[in-house]
Automatic annotation (TrEMBL):
It comes from the Eukaryota. It comes from Glossina palpalis gambiensis. Residues 494-617 form the PKD/REJ-like domain. InterPro entries: PKD/REJ-like. Residues 1-19 form the signal peptide. The keyword rRNA-binding does not apply. This is PKD/REJ-like domain-containing protein. Residues 1038-1114 form a coiled coil.
Length: 1131
């Protein structure tokens, strides 16, 4: 690529399309004045306010020096004479001088000003005008607040004395982010009976439900607030019983217009003639998408002749092109979002001798965080033996480069199709096609010993190189014989590639977390945690700050704030280890950094009095009453930890309260009409998760509660009507949507965890297993409907799930692998009748691997459920694909490598039958042993199991429905054993003669599987003879097996060679590391010597300077003496 083209591409990648070009000035906001509650030393007596604090919140954490100008007015009905007015004026000037002089640096450092009662005069309203001045001399817009002092009460107009009302939230947001605004209220006198009312200015009617929030946290989903507009949000604190207004405050929100960023994948590719390739866009949009149109064009690079284009009003973010002619092509995408246009280009090269093509199902995040790992999977199609595929970091101008050896081949997804697989494909002709498809995964870890991680705010280019042998031309003029083709079939190699660009996003730069005090009592002392402001690009603001702790192997998360960095909380008592403290800071592109403070806080345990316990019980009930579930569950868990570790006398009483209280709250969720109160489903999901967590910590195992929690989870999905494809949503919905991948993952994990707990509480009965399997099937169907990017791969103790959304062309031939300590299972789904699958239609593949505990008797064998679903017209439900009944339609091949000597495959399509051993059918799955594998060839989808059954003979005249009367137990023989045995066959004169296991062991597996099939298909007695054609067939078979063994040996030698190379590379790396360590040690020694020499030289210089100074003084003295003794001239 030319240098100018590289610069152009870099500019396109970094371009930020935005209509907001105003200069961003420094600013700050004033948080509502807070009352200081002065304690008189007795905790049982009430606290009295002594003043107010004014908190300032600078934008982006900049440092400001605050300049105060104070005005005053006399409050009616007070009247002051001239002398009293002069005294007020002097008091105001004294307060102004105090804030601008003595306390100025402290206010700037803490962003906090204290106004004491002793600084003000009664009967006066004070109006404060405040400006912020940056270190560079820039001045912020002026902010104004007022405080009244009347009848001994010092208060803000909207917040009475004795109430602290803190409005936490940023004033500038982007439309495409979830906005959280938190109203924190506290009272100098204990008070719990209150709730919140929210008013959002200019809120559209379809979102009015948000104003029914009664919790302290207002959650506004993405794109509710419109870009370029301002909204005023008001919060009111209301008394529960009287509906009396206690306090209120408001904040003005500005929704910024930031535009969007776009990238294309692949950016370059080389494919074979006749290949289809799908290009996709990655669009990172910060604003609400009102109108979007994408025009795709494919043109010849030289001729600019158009090969294919999309409709002008197209909205699809993918474009499939068939390249049927050799040449170079350009694929352009012209994107118009909200009338702002951008364009990106991909370069495609087409070569006739290449037969490899590429496909990928999901677009990764091409603006990944620099401190996180990255993973991307591309399917390489039409691979043949000796093909090699590997990802590489491309070294081009304008891109960062990862040097060779920093990451290993496994991380670059190295794959080679060996000759062994070629023989394997010949050996089992029905198992697959002559070519194979492989998923090649690029896995870049966050950090290793040699890999320091991505550079921040940089560009990387990764290229998937696939090298395959060039096939011979099958023509009469070819000089290569068929024998040469067989022995050495490939002479030349050709390389194709697939590349994409990756932009890394630097996470916020963090400093430290301060804590005070460092000593206190568990769940009694209030601790303050203050995070320093993080640094990040203006593009990535606003930043969110979330504080959490780790105690007793549990993570307890507190509030997440935007731009606000202070948390006040109490801490639990622990025994095992000290509590760890963290703050996670994230930008709007979800790049996150974590501050960890290892300072140990000394916590003492002191038993609760009955009054203190009752206050906590009342507080928890009122917290749940206003739906602040996160705060309530944190309080419950921390008290549980404190009582359990402190061996409190209240522990049993506390357990009883938690069990009864949570049971009541769960019933409220199931019975509440949900119309008068708005509770987002994210909060409901957190309720279920935290409820289970608290029950588990206190070891409260209640089957009824678990079933009710599961019912709440299922209601979430039913209420949402989750739709897979976003383009079918004509507008963004707000109704209780589980709206991000993290929450969707939590939904799945919580669902599976509840099912496992229910299974354990039921003593693992057959009925409970049936319920478990039914619920798992229902969950996989729900997962198909979730708008998840990428396929889900979930592992639990009893189940392993794979759910993938695939287009028809990827489903026709699909391979999945289960790997764990006990089993290695390969599943291959092959549609033989291509007309049954729409190539462009989306399908959902769901695979379930069930393994119950060992004490389950006959049900301890693994069960596999395989299903393919298609979606209905409005994407609201799924149904199994109707391609059954005929083996000509499709085949499901399942190969299992186990030590159980399985030899039969059984299938059932219903859950009930899966746990009824008499209902399994052996007709739908044919068993075919191969080496250490048992291959099941099925023409049904449903539950599959493998078993070990024994051969018995019967003279029955009709074939039974299942093969329970005619079964077979075939010990699996290795190729080496078969080769070592004699090739002569035993003579079987009659089917009525007994067949022993030793006789069966000498038979090849194909003969036995054929015999088994013949037994099941014939109604007459079983007869076998040893005719010459069969001997010839077996001789050919043995020759093939010898070739397979030879291929194994070759492959083993090659693997051994690779291992030797790896060991040599490791040894070289170790030697280089040792040399570097030795060199560093020598360098350190040299540095130490040089430092000591430098210190000595400095000492000498100082001595010289002292001598020089003394000499200079001596010179001056001599000159003075000489001057005094010189004779004076006569006038």
């Amino acid at each position: 690529m030319k240098s100018s083209e590289t610069v152009l591409r870099v500019l396109l990648l970094f371009r930020l399309i935005s209509s907001d070009v105003t200069l961003d000035l420094p600013s700050f906001r004033i948080i509502a004045p807070q009352n200081l509650c002065k304690s008189n030393g007795n905790e049982s007596q009430s606290q009295q306010p002594d003043g107010v604090t004014i908190a300032f919140q600078p934008k982006d954490g900049i440092k400001l020096i605050y300049q105060f100008q104070i005005f005053f007015t006399i409050l009616e009905p007070n009247t002051f004479n001239q002398r009293e007015t002069l005294l007020v004026w002097k008091a105001v000037r004294a307060l102004e001088e105090l804030l601008n002089g003595k306390e100025r640096s402290k206010i700037s450092q803490e962003n906090l000003a204290l106004i004491r009662k002793s600084n003000v005069m009664a009967g006066v309203s004070y109006v404060f005008h405040v400006e912020g001045i940056t270190e560079g001399g820039e001045t912020t817009p002026e902010q104004v607040f007022d405080i009244e002092y009347r009848d001994g009460v010092l208060q803000n107009v909207n917040v009475p004395e004795g109430i602290n009302f803190l409005f936490v939230g940023t004033e500038e947001i982007v439309a495409n982010m979830e906005y959280r605004l938190i109203a924190k209220v506290s009272f100098c006198l204990p008070k719990y009976d209150y709730y919140f009312e929210w008013i959002i200015e200019d809120l559209q009617e379809e979102y009015k439900e948000l104003e029914n929030t009664i919790s302290s946290c207002l959650q506004i989903p993405k794109n509710v607030l419109k870009a370029g507009k301002r909204n005023i949000i008001e919060a009111r604190v209301m008394e529960n019983k009287t509906k009396r207004l206690l306090a209120k405050d408001a904040i003005e929100i500005k929704v910024l217009t930031k535009g969007y960023q776009v990238m294309i994948i692949p950016s370059t590719a080389r494919v074979g003639e006749g290949s289809n390739i799908t290009l996709r866009l990655f669009i990172k949009n910060y604003d609400e998408v009102k109108e979007i149109s994408i025009l795709w064009k494919c043109v010849g690079e030289a001729t600019k002749q158009e090969l294919k284009s999309s409709m002008p009003d197209n909205k699809e973010q993918y474009f499939e092109v068939a390249f049927n002619k050799v040449g170079s092509y350009e694929v352009w995408a012209f994107i118009s979002i909200n009338d702002v246009v951008s364009k990106v280009k991909a370069d495609i090269e087409v070569i006739s001798s290449i037969f490899v093509s590429y496909d990928f199902q999901h677009t990764p995040n091409l603006y990944t965080s620099a401190n996180e790992g990255f993973q991307f999977t591309v399917t390489v199609l039409n691979l043949v033996p000796l093909c090699e595929a590997i990802w590489l970091s491309a070294q081009e101008d304008g891109f960062e480069f990862i040097k060779p050896g920093v990451l290993d081949k496994e991380q670059y997804g190295y794959t080679k199709i060996s000759n062994l697989e070629k023989y394997y494909l010949e050996e089992i002709a029905d198992f697959t096609n002559s070519t194979v498809n492989r998923d090649i995964t690029l896995t870049i870890p966050a950090k290793t010993d040699l890999w320091h991680g991505f550079e921040g705010d940089s560009l990387y280019k990764f290229r998937l190189d696939v090298t395959c042998p060039k096939p011979y031309k099958d023509n009469s003029n070819s000089m290569v014989t068929s024998r040469e083709k067989e022995e050495e079939p490939w002479k030349k190699f050709l390389t194709s590639y697939f590349s994409f660009d990756l932009h890394t996003n630097s996470p916020p730069q963090v400093l430290k977390l301060q804590m005070e005090p460092l000593k206190g009592k568990a769940m009694k002392t209030a601790f303050s945690f203050i995070s320093a402001s993080a640094k990040d690009l203006l593009l990535d603001s606003p930043l969110s700050y979330e504080f959490f702790i780790k105690a007793d192997d549990y993570e307890i998360h507190f509030e997440k704030y935007f731009e606000y960095k202070t948390w006040n909380t109490k801490l639990p008592y622990t025994l095992k280890q000290s509590i760890e403290y963290f703050v996670e800071i994230c930008d709007v592109r979800l790049a996150c950094s974590v501050i960890r403070n290892t300072t140990e806080i000394s916590l003492e345990y002191e038993e609760f009095s009955n009054k203190q316990l009752q206050e906590y019980l009342t507080e928890i009930q009122t917290i749940f009453g206003r739906t602040d579930f996160s705060e309530g569950f944190n309080t419950i868990l921390m008290i549980s930890m404190t009582f359990k570790n402190g061996q409190s006398k209240h522990l049993e009483k506390w357990k009883m309260f938690v069990r009864q209280f949570l049971a009541q709250e769960i019933d409220k969720f199931l019975e509440r009409p949900q119309e008068g109160i708005y509770i987002p489903d994210n909060d409901v999901l957190q309720f279920v998760s935290k409820c289970k967590e608290n029950l588990k910590y206190l070891k409260i195992n209640n089957k009824i509660l678990l079933q009710k929690l599961l019912e709440i989870l299922e209601q979430i999905v039913e209420r949402n009507g989750l739709s897979l494809n976003e383009r079918f949503k004509r507008r963004i919905r707000t109704k209780r949507i589980v709206n991000n991948q993290q929450q969707q993952k939590l939904l799945i994990e919580t669902h599976l965890s509840l099912l496992e707990d229910l299974l354990e509480t039921s003593d693992l009965t057959v009925e409970s297993q049936m319920e478990y399997a039914t619920s798992i099937l229902r969950l996989t169907q729900q997962m198909c409907l979730m708008p998840l990017k990428g396929h889900e791969n979930v592992k639990r103790s009893n189940v392993h799930l794979i759910v993938k959304k695939l287009k028809g062309h990827a489903l026709i031939y699909n391979t999945q692998v289960f790997e764990n300590a006990q089993e290695s299972i390969l599943l291959n789904f092959k549609v033989k009748n291509a007309d049954l699958v729409n190539q462009e239609k989306l399908y959902c593949l769901a695979i379930i691997f069930l393994k119950f505990p060992e004490n389950m008797g006959s049900l301890q064998l693994p069960l596999i459920n395989y299903n393919v679903y298609e979606f209905n017209d409005n994407w609201s439900a799924v149904k199994p694909v109707e391609c059954r009944q005929k083996i000509e339609n499709f085949q499901l091949h399942i190969a299992s490598a186990t030590d159980n000597n399985f030899n039969k495959c059984a299938m059932t399509t219903s859950v009930d039958s899966a746990f009824n051993l008499n209902a399994w059918s052996f007709d739908d799955c044919k068993a075919k042993p191969y080496k250490n594998y048992l291959l099941c060839i099925c023409n049904e989808m449903g539950f599959l199991k493998m078993d070990s059954l024994y051969l018995t003979t019967t003279a029955a005249t009709t074939r039974p429905k299942t093969t329970a009367a005619i079964t077979l137990n075939i010990p699996t023989a290795t190729a080496a054993e078969i080769e070592s045995r004699e090739t002569s066959l035993p003579t079987l004169t009659s089917s009525r003669e007994s067949v022993t296991l030793s006789t069966l062991a000498t038979l090849p597996s194909t003969f036995l599987s054929t015999a088994a099939r013949d037994i099941s298909n014939m109604a007459k007695p079983f007869h076998t003879s040893t005719k010459q054609p069969l001997v010839n067939t077996l001789v050919i078979r043995i020759d093939k097996l010898k070739k397979t063994v030879a291929a194994y040996e070759t492959d083993i030698k090659e693997k051994a060679r690779h291992i030797d190379e790896k060991e040599r590379e490791l040894a070289k790396t170790q030697n280089a590391l040792d040399e570097q360590r030795e060199a560093r040690k020598k360098s350190d020694d040299v540095v130490t010597v040089l430092e000591s020499q430098l210190q000595a030289k400095n000492e000498e210089i100082r001595n010289y300077e002292m001598e020089l100074s003394e000499t200079e003084e001596l010179r001056k003295t001599i000159m003075s003496l000489m001057e005094s003794k010189r004779p004076k001239r006569k006038a």
